[in-house]
Structure of Formate dehydrogenase family accessory protein FdhD:
Amino acid sequence: MENTNMLYREVSALRFKDNSKKRIKEVVPYDVEFLLKINEKTKKYRITPKSLKAFTIGYLFGNGIVKSLKNIHELKIDGKTIIVKVNKDSLPLSPVKSKLKISTEDVFESFKSLEKNAKIWKITGGTHIAGLISDGNKIFEEDISRHAAIDKVLGHGILKNLNFSESFVVYSGRVSDSLILKLTRLGIPIVISNAAPMYSALSLAKDYNITIVGFVRDRRFNVYTCPHRISL
């Protein structure tokens, strides 16, 4: 079982309440700045320091840098530097082909599972969580970065060789155009969130045949695009 104690830190804070104040102990999520070096290009990413291999693989596929694990010649984690050597070969952007359909209960149950696995968020209130649900497989990752949480579950799915056309993502953040592009490249047909989609995401989702479910709360939700995949 993973030790979540390594993923947050105790700090001192001054709490103001009504007309009084007092010194208290609080916990905040622990974040680390990593250098991601892909071939000769380096970028900085501040993320939660766990599942770094999955993060890197999800990032490479989701951002259209590689389309196969065979394109990755080296992946090495050296302290706070992630070194990757790849033969660039991007996944094409084309409408998602999938026969996947899920029920309203699947939507609610997936979000219950997401909330149950939000262990760092329950302690700190400072992380996002993403889940990948695929034919009995449930993969969850928390991160201070919503993008990194998604990259990590996608990376795990790639390493497990899951069938993405029969999978869906559940997620605690707004649905952006960049997220839709990641899902399109991997062929994932449904994303479910407790937040709102961005307008730019809606047009992309329509073009690429992705179902966006938003505002999952209190036994209700909205379906913004491709509603044929959700049944009562």
Summary: The longest strand covers residues 8-17. The helical segments are 52-62, 104-116, 119-124, 146-159, 177-186, 199-207.
